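hey so i finally got around to running the thing on that chain from the lab meeting. sorry it took forever, my laptop kept dying and i had to restart like 3 times. anyway pasting the input first so we r on the same page abt which one it is
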Amino acid sequence: MRRSVSIAVLTMTLVVGLGAIGIGQRSVLASAQQKAETTEVKIDNFSFGPGTLTVPAGTTVTWTNRDDIPHTVVSTDGVFKSKVLDTDEKFSFTFSKTGTYPYFCSIHPKMTGKVIVQ
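ok and heres what got predicted. didnt touch it at all, straight out
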């Protein structure tokens, strides 16, 4: 009798412990999925670097003007538009939908870049 009670208690402890591990793993996975990603594009020497950036949906991209002259960041389809950025100023946009987002500097239209959201 004692042996079957011990086995039952041990079995129950094992089941509860495995369930807790599964819940913990799901919690860690959910936290990783919810953690927002960020990435940076440098504006320097009349160019965006990197020129093409591929990111997952939900990523915030920050452009930083490292040039000595003003620049802007404007999407060709009107999704985002920065103010004129002086040296060391930043502009950020969070890409929530998948797609391709080409952009340019409205002051220097030959400066172009692209964000691909997957």
